[in-house]
Specification:
Ribosomal Protein L22, Chain A, two-stranded antiparallel sheet, Ribosomal_uL22_bac/chlpt-type, alpha+beta, 3 helices, RNA-binding, elongated, 110 residues, 5 strands
């Protein structure tokens, strides 16, 4: 692991994030940013921000961006916001607004 970055308590479902994560797993850092940039899914905004942060962390340590690839990318379940929606006959239906913790680690290509 050369550099890492993580985002916590992000207001997006972990299942939706994992679909987008599969597209960039084990790709070059520059290639992953371009793939995410042209994607039409909401989690891409969070992933681009975290990936650019990890790249910046590697630059500060003195590594070349062209040699970096995504060695590890994980999305864990965060706490859910509990809300209620009005239902028939004065009842309430629960709504779970899910959150995610995303962690990206970069490493050098061999």
């Amino acid at each position: 692991m050369i550099a890492k970055a993580e985002g916590k308590f992000l207001r997006v479902s972990p299942t939706k994030v994992s679909q987008v994560m599969d597209l960039i797993r084990n790709k070059d850092a520059k290639e992953a940013v371009s793939i995410l940039f042209h994607l039409n899914k909401r989690p891409k905004e969070y992933l681009i921000k975290i990936l650019k942060s990890a790249i910046a962390n590697a630059k500060v340590k003195g590594f070349n961006v062209e040699q970096l690839y995504i060695s590890k990318i994980i999305c864990n379940v965060g706490p859910s916001w509990k809300r209620f929606k009005a239902a028939a006959f004065g009842r309430a239906q629960p709504i779970l607004k899910r959150t995610a913790h995303i962690k990206i680690e970069l490493d050098l290509k061999e």
